[in-house]
């Protein structure tokens, strides 16, 4: 689609395709290397980073306070009760796991489909995945009431001859999330090795040279190293791709195997996966837009990235809307009194306001992203990312709470009211996530220099007399081209 609403003389628009560029013109191997490495190797940390770090650490301290009190007093400090035995803990668990899905999709699936625009955002999207899984994995442990016995969830030989219930989807979560976290960490680290070698060679202090050299595990940038690196990346992408579909599908089975109205449905696996990618891309935008502004990376994280992420959000948002409409249709078409009442209760019951919040945030407002002028407006897309993440949290709230408060028997109906400890735990995980992300941004390369250098015009294959001659598409740690002709 042509960019007709943009100025013709805009250097960020390709005059041939009339599309926004993925990377600003004029960059060289050296300039890309310097622009990314300066953020990590600078001796003058911006005051804004310190302010955000202290603020995030303070909010993470709220989490520590809430969890400490939980260990001392038990889960009774939360708002959970009968019949709502699952409250904020499970809502937040599903929400955080969903946020992590965009990192895997950007890193693995878009790599296999050779989508070059992913290169500027895949590194911190992978980091976002890991930190989101850290926040998510905490909730099932503290929700069981005795987290120090969490190892009982794993099958191991013990004197009690006690084994977990393998037919329970709650146990499936343990293996799905642990596998997801392992692959994500390995994929993230393997992708950073070339850039860690660059930081090792450019570092001035002895400690930085030792630290990044240790993490670079002897990377030299030789042909042999590049071949092994690219082979490992493709293998890990192939392993990670099924996880994008399987992890949230397994988590959806926590609900769909139950017999409660609103839970016992076969649409949950694809519905949950689409919602996870939807909220995950929204969180990538929430992180990318402030980062590109604070560190002046507008020429590396361009409008093209924001526009493409808006398109992915729009597509997955429509799938989520289809899931909502299917739930409404089946509650009528099934001729089940309980399913019909469940949907009526969601819309007009005591907590019906939460249903209309999610409809507004997840379906109504995102329709603005059909407009290209909206998708290329950085401020509006940032606000939209916050709206979508809010709506996806309320989606999990509606699924968990409304079905539990009113099931088959009116005599077992109840209500749910979160306590201050519920809110403190949730807000605290936001602080922990931001705290970890700021550490990553400061001490590790958040944009893959090696992959960006391969996108430059200098790295393209040229032909002389009809014979393709590959130019030096790798670059040394100083940013100058290095011929790939042996070790």
Structure description:
- With 487 residues, the protein is mostly helical.
- The chain has a single domain (29-469), classed as Formate dehydrogenase/DMSO reductase fold.
- It has 16 helices and two strands.
- It has helices spanning 29-41, 47-73, 88-99, 101-112, 122-143, 169-202, 206-216, 223-256, 268-294, 303-333, 337-348, 352-364, 372-375, 378-405, 420-443, 449-453; strands at 462-464, 467-469.
- It has a two-stranded antiparallel sheet with strand order 1-2.
- Strand 1 (462-464) and strand 2 form a beta hairpin.
- Helix 6 packs antiparallel against helix 8, helix 9 packs antiparallel against helix 10 (303-333) and helix 9 runs antiparallel to helix 14 (378-405).
- The longest helix is centred in the middle third of the chain and has 34 residues, at 169-202.
- The protein is globular and about 70 Å long.
- The two termini are 44 Å apart.
What count of domains describes the coordinates?
1
Reported CATH architecture: Up-down Bundle
User: How many angstroms does the end-to-end distance come to?
Assistant: 44 Å
Give the spatial strand order of the biggest sheet.
1-2
Number of strands: 2
Q: Let me know the average pLDDT.
A: 88
CATH topology: Formate dehydrogenase/DMSO reductase fold
* Cα gyration radius (Å): 24 Å
CATH class: Mainly Alpha
């Amino acid at each position: 689609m042509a960019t007709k609403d943009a100025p013709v003389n805009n250097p960020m628009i390709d005059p041939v395709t009339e599309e926004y560029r993925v990377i600003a013109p004029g960059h060289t191997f050296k300039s890309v290397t310097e622009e990314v490495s300066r953020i990590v190797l600078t001796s003058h940390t911006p005051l804004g980073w310190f302010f955000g770090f202290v603020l995030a650490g303070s909010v993470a301290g709220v989490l520590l306070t809430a969890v400490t009190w939980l260990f001392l007093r038990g889960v009774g400090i939360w708002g959970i009760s009968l019949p709502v035995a699952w409250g904020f803990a499970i809502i937040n668990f599903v929400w955080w796991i969903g946020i992590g899905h965009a990192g895997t999709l950007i890193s693995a699936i878009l790599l296999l489909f050779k989508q070059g625009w992913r290169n500027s955002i895949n590194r911190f999207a992978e980091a976002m995945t890991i930190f989101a899984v850290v926040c998510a994995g905490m909730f099932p442990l503290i929700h069981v009431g005795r987290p120090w016995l969490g190892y009982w969830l794993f099958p191991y030989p013990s004197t009690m001859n006690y084994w977990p219930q393998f037919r329970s989807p709650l146990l499936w979560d343990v293996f799905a999330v642990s596998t997801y976290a392992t692959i994500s960490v390995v994929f993230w680290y393997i992708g950073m090795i070339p850039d860690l070698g660059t930081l090792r060679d450019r570092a001035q202090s002895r400690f930085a040279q030792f630290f990044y050299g240790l993490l670079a595990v002897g990377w030299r940038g030789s042909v042999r190293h590049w071949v092994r690196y690219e082979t490992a990346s493709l293998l890990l992408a192939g392993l990670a791709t099924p996880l994008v579909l399987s992890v949230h599908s397994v988590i959806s089975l926590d609900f769909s195997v139950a017999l409660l109205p609103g839970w016992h449905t076969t649409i949950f696996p694809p519905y949950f996966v689409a919602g996870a990618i939807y909220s995950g891309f929204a969180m990538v935008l929430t992180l990318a837009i402030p980062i590109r502004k604070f560190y002046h990376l507008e020429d590396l994280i361009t409008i093209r990235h924001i526009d493409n992420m808006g398109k992915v959000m729009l597509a997955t948002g429509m799938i989520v809307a289809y899931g909502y409409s299917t739930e409404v249709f089946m509650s009528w078409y099934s001729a089940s009194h309980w399913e019909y009442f469940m949907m009526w209760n969601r819309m007009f019951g005591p907590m019906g306001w939460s249903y209309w919040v999610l409809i507004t945030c997840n379906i109504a407002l995102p329709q603005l992203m059909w407009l290209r002028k909206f998708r290329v407006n950085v401020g509006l897309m940032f606000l939209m990312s916050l709206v979508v993440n809010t709506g996806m949290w309320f989606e999990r709230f509606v699924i968990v709470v409304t079905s539990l408060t009113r099931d088959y028997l009116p005599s077992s109906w109840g209500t749910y009211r979160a306590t201050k400890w519920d809110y403190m735990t949730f807000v605290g995980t936001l602080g922990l996530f931001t705290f970890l992300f700021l550490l990553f941004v400061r001490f590790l390369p958040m944009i893959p220099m090696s992959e960006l250098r391969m996108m430059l015009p200098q790295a393209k294959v040229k032909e002389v007399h009809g014979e393709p001659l590959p130019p030096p598409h790798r670059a040394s740690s100083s940013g100058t081209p290095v011929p790939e002709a042996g070790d």
